[in-house]
Amino acid sequence: MLTIENLHATVGGKPILNGLTLTVPTGEVHAIMGPNGAGKSTLAYVLGGRPGYEVTDGSATFDGVDLFALEPHERAAAGLFLGFQYPVEIPGVSYLQFLRESLNAQRRGRGEAELSGAEFIKLARAQAATLGMDAEMLKRPVNVGFSGGEKKRAEMVQMGIMAPKLAILDETDSGLDIDALKAVGAGINSIMRSPDKSVLLITHYQRLLDYVRPDRVHVLSGGRIVRSGGAELAQELEREGYAEVAA
């Protein structure tokens, strides 16, 4: 699904990723853990195509296609979803309007027919129900007045509606209480646990992995993967800390 080879990237001229190599096969959930400043969010933004993040060497292929040859909207239409640590607010734009325009833009990009208003509302309500979210909240402006947990639930609804092939979730557990954490974990499992989908889950802590058990865990330090292992590696990190495990 995703193959990264010797990836180097800079932000504002400062090297952040320094030869990162990683493979996420189709049908698997991989977690990336690491200390602050290791390059975790930079990796997510580089893969998503955020401006200001410059790839200076290396390659990344997504579903057999050169990812860096695609514009951000083309990556989204191809099936890549990027979840943010801090979802942004968009005053004046309802979540329903935002989601419908986003979905239909992706469908147009793939040469598919757009969903009618009735078809979209039915889909949105079904996804909101799956995440335990009141569909009425989707009538509100995007994330305006939402709690941290509500923002993350809404983002899971968005992911369910977009139905991506690959979800890159950047510290999606940040700021969540235990109930919201369980809901987000259940959302990831229900939406993305599939033989034809993959997840790259970026997190500081092992707690989300109690609900979304990864196939592989990778330690990112100094801009590259320094260690990989099974789900038990996350528990080792929780006990020992990054300095000991990444040494």
From TrEMBL:
It comes from the Bacteria. The keyword Isomerase does not apply. PROSITE patterns: ABC_TRANSPORTER_2. Pfam families: ABC_tran. Transmembrane segments: none annotated. GO terms for molecular function: ATP binding; ATP hydrolysis activity. Residues 2-247 form the ABC transporter domain. Keywords: ATP-binding, Nucleotide-binding. SUPFAM superfamilies: P-loop containing nucleoside triphosphate hydrolases (SSF52540). CDD domains: ABC_FeS_Assembly (cd03217). This is Fe-S cluster assembly ATPase SufC. It comes from Sphingomonas rhizophila.
